[in-house]
Amino acid sequence: MLVISKELVEKLTAHLESAYPEEGAGFLLGGDGEVREIFPLPNAREDGARRNRYLITPEDYITAEVKAAELGVDLIGVFHSHPDCPNVPSEYDREWAQPFFSYLITRVNEGKAVSHRSWKLAEDRSKYDEEEVEITK
């Protein structure tokens, strides 16, 4: 289960809606399945591919690790949007995913977030399993 506050969902949603019609992305920071902060990132993918792909650079990853250390938490996952398509991981998502991370995917239809689903990659990298998302007050 992935636990995230309503306040953080609102921040995450604002970031992903502002990226529309391109994919938006960022890191989930926290521990023990609880998101305690989000770390929004610009989509570093080249201009023509941002509509259906996001890229987190090695520099983004290091910056997020430093931020997590400052807060005394860990990187526990990645969030990103799927503009105008289902929030189910793609084969591309699976190829780049890491086991043990939560992957929160938000469906953004016509500029508005409509649903959030979270997934974890199987240890053998063969598939994703959906995990429950609990939004707290």
Can you offer a commentary on this structure?
By secondary structure, the protein is α/β, with parallel strands linked by helices. The protein has a single domain, classed as Cytidine Deaminase, domain 2, CATH 3.40.140.10. It is 25% helix and 40% strand. It has a six-stranded mixed sheet. A two-stranded parallel ribbon has the order 1-8. The longest helix is centred in the N-terminal third of the chain and has 14 residues.
Shape: globular
Question: Whole-number radius of gyration?
Answer: 14 Å
Largest sheet: 6 strands, mixed
Helix content: 10-25%
Q: What is the assembly state of the chains in this entry?
A: single chain
- Sheet with most strands: strand arrangement: 3-2-4-5-6-7
Q: Hey, roughly how much beta strand do the residues contain? A: 35-45%
Taken together, the total number of domains comes to: 1
Class based on secondary structure composition and strand pairing: alpha/beta
Q: Give the overall average pLDDT.
A: 94
